[in-house]
Specification:
The structure holds 2 protein chains of 2 kinds. In chain A, the strands form 2 sheets. In chain A, strands 2, 3, 4, 6, 7, 8 and 10 form a 7-stranded mixed sheet that branches. In chain A, strands 5-1-9 form a 3-stranded mixed sheet, with no helix packed on it. By secondary structure, chain A is α+β, with helices and mostly antiparallel strands. The termini of chain A are far apart. Chain A has 3 helices and 10 strands, in the order αββββββαββββα. By secondary structure, chain B is mainly beta. Classes of the chains: A alpha+beta, B mainly beta. At the A-B interface, strand 1 and strand 5 of A face strand 15 of B.
């Protein structure tokens, strides 16, 4: 009997999830929300067109904090003009019903630093950055469904910062410092 | 009817110019259609003329920066959304088949100008799959669903778009066997509309600007 109840509850949960359409958005920006190189970087201006920088869209239900957002969909790149991205549609997680408002963030990093933003955070030798959080309504409402809402109207521009690879001299100095500290602790 | 007259005038004008300039005669009807999108946001459109190719850069060569095209195939919107970039054009430069309708998003009011040849003849066929699809007339004609020859079966539905209200029109024409479309809604030139078909249909037009 208990087994039956668990199975029934699971089936109901699955049915509920299927009936609950999620929101849809277009992952793009505008000339008012360009992605740029941070001042002092090796490059300047808006990000160059090409595959050297990856961008991903992060989503959370309305009211989410930055740490609670998760990536939705695959990555995209800059193009066809500098500083702009146009990555097609993305579907939110189950926490946002079609048509509801959600929280979004765009994260960008050099492709040479890894396949994900999280991986890139642990690497050096490239650009990395994230936009402020912004909210947008979503599409996908009704039958036939409404079109995905473009994020270009609400996306916020941001800059990517260059994370240099520590030079051998810097590494050696660091090691020397660490050794000195260890020796000092031993003496004490 | 007025559209036909305008197009014929445009065609005659174009042929006349050609004749005066280079003594080249054409039996084709070439013209243009201006489609005003007065409200920023979403609109349902279709391509009413035959351009050099079916690619967006030929069909809609100019649009406001940041305009988007949403195609709908296999019962869902395509994840690829072509965007218009000033100085570049549409990216990607996708193709819109004759008779296919799309959603366009314009960030500001715009008038789209379609330029091309009026499709004529008895072979103007548009496949309508079962379920939802976006379709539009292959010829630039404002007329009712029945006058346009939109096929239907019992229970088929048509959803038109209210650009000013930014939503589907409250009236949803339904096809009744023995009656036809009720109400028999009017579709504007270059308008697209959603069809919900109970079974696959073929929309066949036999159109001539001389009729």
């Amino acid at each position: 009997m208990k087994k039956f109840s668990i199975v029934a509850a699971a089936l109901l949960a699955i049915a509920g999830q299927k009936a609950f359409a999620q929101g849809t958005v277009v992952f793009n920006n505008s000339n008012a929300s360009l992605v740029t190189y941070a001042p002092g970087s090796p490059d300047s201006g808006s990000l160059a067109v090409g595959n050297t920088v990856l961008l991903a869209l992060y989503w959370g239900p309305a009211g989410s904090a930055a740490g609670a957002l998760t990536q939705i969909g695959g990555t995209t790149t800059i193009g066809p003009v500098v500083g702009r991205y146009s990555g097609g549609t993305r579907t939110t997680g189950a926490g946002t019903a079609a048509g509801a408002t959600a929280v979004f963030q765009v994260k960008a990093w050099s492709a040479s630093m890894g396949a994900t933003y999280e991986e890139a955070l642990t690497r050096n030798g490239g650009y990395i950055g994230a936009s402020p959080l912004f909210t947008s309504s979503t599409g996908g409402v009704g039958q036939p469904a409404s079109a995905a809402v473009p994020l270009s109207a609400t996306a916020v521009g941001f800059a990517v910062t260059f994370v240099p690879v520590p030079e051998p001299g810097t590494i050696a100095l660091g090691l020397l410092g660490a050794t000195a500290l260890l020796l000092r602790r031993k003496k004490a | 009817m007025r559209t036909k007259t305008l197009l014929l005038s445009a065609a005659v004008g174009a042929v006349g110019l050609l004749a005066a300039d280079a003594q080249v005669y054409s039996v084709n009807s070439v013209g243009y259609v201006n489609k005003a999108l007065a409200t920023p946001g979403f609109h349902m459109i279709s391509n009413p003329l035959k351009a050099a190719t079916d690619n967006l850069n030929d069909i809609i060569p100019n649009a406001p920066e940041g305009s988007l095209i949403y195609t709908f195939t296999g019962g869902a919107f395509s994840p690829t959304v072509p965007e218009y970039f000033t100085g570049v054009g549409w990216s990607p430069n996708s193709a819109i088949a004759p008779g296919e309708g799309v959603f366009i998003y314009v960030p500001s009011p715009a008038t789209l100008t379609f330029v091309g040849e009026v499709r004529q003849g008895a072979a103007l066929t548009t496949a309508i799959p079962s379920g939802f699809s976006i379709r539009g007339s292959q010829v630039p004609q404002q007329a009712t669903l029945s006058a346009l020859g939109v096929p239907g079966g019992d229970g088929d539905l048509v959803y038109t778009w209210d650009g000013a209200g930014q939503g589907y029109s409250a009236t949803v024409p339904e096809f009744f066997t023995g009656v036809g479309w009720s109400p028999d809604a009017t579709v504007g030139v270059a308008d697209g509309f959603f069809v919900f078909a109970q079974a696959p249909r073929t929309w066949t037009r036999n159109f001539s600007v001389n009729n």
